[in-house]
Amino acid sequence: MTAPVTLSASLQADWGRVLAVAWKDLTAERRTKSNFNAVVAMAGMILLFFGFALGPDAEGLRNAAAGVLWLTILFSGVLAFNRSYQLELEAGALEQLLLYPGERWAIYLGKLLANIAFVFLVEVITLPLTAVLYHVAFPERWLSVLGVLVLGTTGFVALGTLYSAMASRSRSREVLLPLLLFPMLVPVLIAASGATASLLGGDVMGDSRAWIRLLAAFDAIFIVAATWAFQFVIEG
Amino acid sequence: MAAGEILAIIGHNGSGKSTLLRVAATAVRPTRGSGTVFGADLVKDPQAVRSMLALLSTEPGVYGDLTALENLRFAARMLGVPTDHAPLQRALDRVGLGREGYERARNMSSGMQRRLSIARLLLREPRVLLMDEPYNSLDPDGARLVNELIRETKDRGGSVLLVAHDLSRGEGLPDRVVEMQDGLLAEPTAGPDADSVIVRDVIPLDQPKAHGLRLERGGLR
What we know:
The complex is a heterodimer of chains A (236) and B (221).
Chain A lengths: L6 H26 L1 H21 L3 H32 L3 H7 L4 H30 L8 H26 L5 H12 L1 H15 L7 H27 L2
Helix pairs in contact in A: 1-5, 2-3, 2-5, 3-4, 3-5, 3-6, 3-7, 3-8, 5-6, 5-9, 6-7, 6-8, 6-9, 8-9
Chain B lengths: L5 E6 L5 H8 L11 E2 L2 E2 L4 H5 L2 E4 L11 H12 L5 H10 L15 H12 L6 E5 L7 H16 L3 E6 L11 E6 L2 E4 L13 E4 L17
Helix pairs in contact in B: 3-4, 4-5
């Protein structure tokens, strides 16, 4: 007679699945690098084009840097999300993935971890590029800027991972995903840009703390809601 | 369907065979009706159902950018079975891919990818084995492997439900053969051979008597 599966054993097994999904997605991406190269190229172009559009004035560029940085992350990150489920649609892998035992949220969290790691890697390149192109000096409170990046990216990716699952079953998913996702990202964009701009400007008004708290609240809501909603979205 | 039984469903394209299989696998939620697998409800307790069954689908369901061993390691981690090299390599050896462990699935032929998906089935011993056109893309050796897997599942008391256009490569294996036409099941009159099936009684799936899949004491009924 088998022993009943305890809650902790079940959670441990699901955590193992979270790591397995993240490992699988990152390994596949590491092999091809096609998506990474495309996203980095896209990010570079967005930064350049915004720079051209804003003109050569250093002060103007510096003031726009935070907003442009976050728009770049958002626009280029969407490409990453499409790829995330493309992997599953090839050769019918999604059906097999859904037939493994375990909770659906394990798949979501695995994909979330992989996508966060991916977007962070893209940011490692876009950040210095933004600093150079937009005349941004190394911030005094760089640790807080890093915290804002972590929070903003997490919120953005939490929603992106859910919405890309939703769009993945549609034939026009490349078009559908930004249409579904971008309106939902407005709060993250405003809070992340506000916090980043405040910190890059020296936080003279001391308003970065409020933005960061707001961003953290969005993250918590998005992650909880998306983790719960994923089971309904992925089964179609 | 009793424990240890092999049931084959035959029928033309679009007759609903694969849909029935996917409902039984919990990949598709039934719009009507109910079903149980060893007492676990397909709709209310799909997790328990998934822990008991394995599906060999028409598509291999492998990740092209991962190697054969990595594909198996991922499956093992998702299934919660040991991920050591030895059992994974044994599974690959068994399906004839022992030398292709470090080959990316994308570079394999469709037959090899099919074998890799069979290797995934070998990672554990499911109580219910569902197979959708199991002989597709397989050479005679591959077909023999599928038949071995079916017999082994039956020998340990598991149930096998296989769906196929043509059962000639699995002749003599099914205990029962049922024909499906336009989503309706037909009972055979006698004999396990696909050739001997005579439609006697057509049972609509939405009638209370034959509500989709009811799996009690280990199988479809």
